[in-house]
Backbone:
């Protein structure tokens, strides 16, 4: 399926941990035929490049500090100026602050990009149930899920019979903390975009699979 968007479009994707945002970003990349830009990937790319900006980022991260807005803004501006973004792109993990959103507006408006915001809404109870059901083989790394992808033998890896474990990130208290952090950080930026005048859509991701969610998003984007 190809999406008949009027390019260039900057799709800004939000969603809590466990909402399927990463999966949707990959599916939308294929659907829209535009780059998927993740701030985490950008930071790692810059550090690996050993260029001046990469050295600056590496130095900041080495001290344990957060990369400041102005540096992240510079990274994003450099990335979206590349030729592969001329028809549009998907932003994942940016903007994280209102200051970043305001800078993005200043960057995109002269270039003629239309901003469209998609927020994947998934009930936190569902996310917790989904993530706490995950199990991993400590020997080979294979992932299972008690509800959607269970092992053939309870709590044992299908490949080598090793007893499965719960990853630290999948413990309920850790997941709740991550969700609370996401909610605290993201609510102001979502309120900003909802009042910005740009198309803003909240997509219900409860009880639907990745393809059904993709269809919902593509339906919204096709009419922008």
Residues:
């Amino acid at each position: 399926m190809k999406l008949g968007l009027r390019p260039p479009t900057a799709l800004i994707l939000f969603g809590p941990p466990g909402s399927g945002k990463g999966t949707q970003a990959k599916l939308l990349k294929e659907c829209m035929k535009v780059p998927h830009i993740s701030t985490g990937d950008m930071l790692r790319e810059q550090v690996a490049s050993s260029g001046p900006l990469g050295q600056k980022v590496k130095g900041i991260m080495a001290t344990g500090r957060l990369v400041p807005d102005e540096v992240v803004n510079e990274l994003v501006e450099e990335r979206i100026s590349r030729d592969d973004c001329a028809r549009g792109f998907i932003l994942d993990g940016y903007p994280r602050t209102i200051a970043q959103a305001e800078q993005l507006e200043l960057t995109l408006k002269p270039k003629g990009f239309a901003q469209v915001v998609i927020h994947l809404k998934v009930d936190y109870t569902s996310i917790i149930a989904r993530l706490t059901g995950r199990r991993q083989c400590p020997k080979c790394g294979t992932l299972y899920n008690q509800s959607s992808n269970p092992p053939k033998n309870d709590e044992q890896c299908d490949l080598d019979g090793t007893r499965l474990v719960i990853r630290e990130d999948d413990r309920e208290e850790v997941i709740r903390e991550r969700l609370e952090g996401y909610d605290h950080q993201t609510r102001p930026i979502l309120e900003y975009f909802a009042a910005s005048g740009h198309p803003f859509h909240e997509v219900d991701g409860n009880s639907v699979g990745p393809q059904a969610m993709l269809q919902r998003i593509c339906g919204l984007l096709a009419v922008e």
Remarks:
- The chain has a mean pLDDT of 89.
- The chain has eight helices and seven strands.
- The domain at 9-129+187-222 is CATH 3.40.50.300 (Rossmann fold).
